[in-house]
Amino acid sequence: MTLPHVVVGVDGSLVSVRALDQAAEEAARRGIALRVVYAVPDRDEAGPVLASAASRVRERHPDVPVDTRAVADGVVRTLARESADAVLTVVGPRGLGGLAGLVCGAVSSRLAAQAQGPLLVVRGECPHDDRRDVLLGLETDTDTEAALYALEEAELRGGRLRVLHSGTHRTNPELTSLIPAMSPGQQSRPKVAVESRTVHIAPAQAFVEATRDAVVVVIGSHRPGNRHGGHLGPVARTLLHHSHCPVVVVPTGCR
Asked: Of 155, 176, 248, 249, which has fewest CB within 10 angstroms of its CB?
């Protein structure tokens, strides 16, 4: 049986070190293990990078169990596969070496669309401050799982959940009934304060601006009829490239 864990992709670059640090923090916050993965053509090249990564995590988070894995395969295929049994998969906004172009342009869309569980893309220069809001971007009528993930994230951090609805999507009764249930005073979710508003004009730009004051933004990836391939809407694609805070992409059907 696989124990709960966070997965992070590394390649030895400074950007991937930042992703490693974020992933270690996420694992420590959840009280679970961390798996460090290096996708590289020759596994013999991975040893020093993985050893350095494991040492860094153990020094900063001695209570987080760490294991490392070198995989001779493509980056997107490797991390999409690893995401299947991970609580969260973490990558940097770009990479060098084995992770070159990892979440830039078409490659970022491929990984975000193919991940089988929540994917965190490390972005922005905001300090790690759990007092900041968790931001939820609702772009379509199938974002219930992203909403549930964002709610759990706000509970985990002890913060507020701020919900932005894109005025371009039609209303889903299940989703709209879920949001009021998140409000303070409800027996099921008594600890999370929720603020909700709809953006009708230039939602992508409005969502990006809202990330300035967020600790993380959660968005959905939609997979009609194909659980192995998804679709990112315009808001999601914009946030992956311009968000001021980390972005979590939650695929439909991951829960």
From this structure: 176
C-alpha dist (Å) from residue 3 to 33, 117, 128, 143, 239: 8, 15, 26, 27, 31
Q: Which two tokens stand for residue 111?
A: 């990984």
Looking at residue 109, what is its pLDDT?
63
Position 169 scores a pLDDT of 56
> Is residue 241 within a helix (H) or strand (E), and if so which, with residue range?
helix 234-242
Q: How far apart are the first and last CA of the chain?
A: 18
pLDDT tens-digit map of 191-210 = 677 877 777 677 788 899 99
Compute the distance between CA of residue 160 and CA of residue 121 in angstroms, rounded to an integer: 21
pLDDT at 7: 96
DSSP letter for 56, please. H
Is-contact 115 249, C-beta < 8 A? yes
How many other β-carbons are positioned within 10 Å of the β-carbon of residue 60? 13
What is the CATH code of the structural domain delimited by 133-251? Answer: 3.40.50.620
> Residue 138 is inside which H or E element, if any?
strand 133-138
State the DSSP H helix or E strand holding residue 47, giving kind and residue range, or none if neither. Answer: helix 47-60
What are the sequence ranges of the domains in the chain? 5-121, 133-251
Instruction: Give the residue carrying structure tokens 């993965």.
Output: 37
Percent of the chain with pLDDT over 70: 75
Residue pointed to by tokens 């249930």: 181
What region does 9 belong to: left with phi over 0, alpha with psi -120 to 50, or beta? beta
- Residue 104 contacts residue 94 (beta carbons within 8 Å): yes
Report yes or no: 34 and 10 within 8 Å, Cβ to Cβ: no
